Amino acid sequence: MKDGVRRFNEQAPEVKKQYYSRDFRREFVYTSNFDLYTSSAASWRDTFSCYMAPNPPKPQDLPAICRDVMLEYSKQAMSLGEFLFELISEALGLNPNHLKDIDCSKGLRMLCHYYPPCPEPDLTLGTTKHSDIAFLTVLLPDQIEGLQVLREGYWFDVPPVPGALIINLVTNDKFISSEHRVLANRATKARVSVGCFFTTGIRPNPRIYGPIRELVSENNPPKYREITVKELAAHRDAKGLDGSNLLHFKI
Description:
5 helices, metal ion binding, Jelly Rolls, four-stranded antiparallel β-sheet, iron, oxidoreductase, six-stranded antiparallel β-sheet, dioxygenase activity, metal-binding, about 20% helix
């Protein structure tokens, strides 16, 4: 999968530009900085993205150079995600199918990031500080360092572990969706990562989400108001990546 990301990004610009767009309703979008016109600064990366579920793209809508591996990898990611949702449900004291039954595993968006070497890495970031808005994120990093997580006011490196995936999720602060960032690439080789986000994003999904009622009590009151996934995604798109996305919806 990581090789597919490199192959696509290292094509000639005239080949890639046919996929470039800022219309994120398209089946496959290649762009640089989705929040270019709302963020205070641009990040040093390019990205291609695609919704792989619930309605996967037609094979002809994907670039041939990474088509097969995207389709196969997304199937494996869906299988892993459904298994993780079962484990998380059990960890929360719920029926194993609870999160699946409320469609947390319904949507899958794949974001493939390409961080070229940066000539002045101290002047920018690869990805600015943010928390994810997906129910669950399955991140495939490469072996070039750069990912950091914020904990108790300090940034800590997340060292790459060969063959490992990084998992991030959202609940009513039972499990915290950590704020994280990516430093600009100091290496001589491009850094890549593949994020599989379990969300329907800007796609239609009328279901209302909020703190799980079975977990709310007088001692654990709801901390966030009920919203749709599309409302959360629209808020993130309007303000850019900077900081936490859930604070806006805190009660």
